[in-house]
């Protein structure tokens, strides 16, 4: 992977050092495994949904945690008492852990399981003090 030198950004921008640090971190992170597949949808101006294919997992086998700007979704299959002999096994039943870095002021609203898909709804709530406001010009 290519390395980018972001030091000019540090010198010419005020307050964007956190953004540059996030880009640096993203460049250094290892690739996440491709299981389970997921989509990230934009539902509205400040509403998002993560949809993850979790075929074969019950909601009791899933764990969703949101902590300090990070969302972690884990799936752990319960031990199967009956040993099975598969002629072909195409449905993955392995444990997984996915981490998502949440932007500032994004929080998890709800999670639901429907038709083998896990839906995690997110919303960005920007505080009033941080919203754009019109500044009157005095003469």
UniProtKB/TrEMBL annotation:
Domain SHSP: start-end pairs: 29-139
Superkingdom classification of source: Bacteria
Record flagged with keyword Iron-sulfur: no
Pfam families the UniProt entry points to: HSP20
Hydrolase listed as a keyword: no
InterPro entries per UniProt: A-crystallin/Hsp20_dom (IPR002068), ACD_IbpA/B (IPR037913), HSP20-like_chaperone (IPR008978)
Sorted UniProt keywords: Stress response
Family label: Belongs to the small heat shock protein (HSP20) family.
Name of the protein: Hsp20 family protein
Organism, as annotated: Neptunomonas phycophila
Lineage: Bacteria, Pseudomonadati, Pseudomonadota, Gammaproteobacteria, Oceanospirillales
């Amino acid at each position: 992977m290519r390395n980018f030198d972001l030091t000019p950004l540090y010198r010419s921008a005020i307050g964007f050092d956190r953004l540059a640090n996030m880009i640096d971190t993203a460049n250094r992170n290892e690739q996440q495994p491709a299981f389970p597949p997921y989509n990230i949808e934009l539902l509205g101006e400040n509403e998002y949904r993560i949809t993850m294919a979790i075929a074969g997992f019950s909601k009791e086998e899933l764990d969703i945690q949101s902590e300090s700007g990070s969302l972690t979704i884990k799936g752990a299959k319960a031990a199967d008492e009956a040993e099975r002999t598969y002629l072909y096994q195409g449905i993955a039943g392995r444990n997984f852990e996915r981490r998502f870095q949440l932007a500032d002021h994004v929080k998890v609203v709800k999670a639901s399981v429907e038709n083998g898909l896990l839906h995690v709804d997110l919303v960005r709530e920007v505080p009033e003090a941080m919203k754009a406001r019109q500044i009157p010009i005095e003469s």
